[in-house]
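Subgroup meeting minutes
Present: P.N., E.W., G.H.
Scribe: E.W.

1. P.N. recapped why we're keeping a running log of single-chain structure predictions: easier to compare across weeks, and new members can see raw inputs and outputs side by side.
2. G.H. added today's entry (186 aa).
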Amino acid sequence: MNTGKNFTKYDYKNSFGQSNPNLQSGSGNFYEIGLIKPLIKEHFLYSFGLSLNEYNAVGGNVANAYSWDTKYLGIKGGLAYSFFPMGDDPDHNLDFLVHAGILGESIIYGKQKIDGINYDLVHQKEFSGIVLEASIGFQVKYRVPSFGFLSIGYNFGQTTNISKSTEEKLSFITHQLQLGVHFPIN
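Output recorded in log:
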């Protein structure tokens, strides 16, 4: 189980290919639950699970203030490399992992607020459909005897909407700080 914060920057381009310079990064939460298993040897691992991500942003100028509040539900898969696999050695308590993953997700909640008026984003073409996020990151795991493992980590991700073709383009660039709790399953 992982949870933490997403720090998201919207990369928006209008139908003329112009970006909005007034967009600022926003923060939101994320939650993941999944399974990690050895792939070939104990150094190589694969993972899969479910995730809920909030990708939020704010913006505005002298005349207008706006914000986005979104939640995406998805399925994640990935590969990891463990530098110091712990195995069954009780004296070995620390591991460092690098990982890459792909997340397929879709919006389940979305609101845009412009000057106090709320708009639903769930059916807006830039936000709806299937969104893929490619990510890379690292994780440090610490064994807690008779419990499992605790971890901290970082992910960098970039999304692309693969199911909608519109003149307006939107993607998310996300920096994710993670805290994790891991339980061995025999």
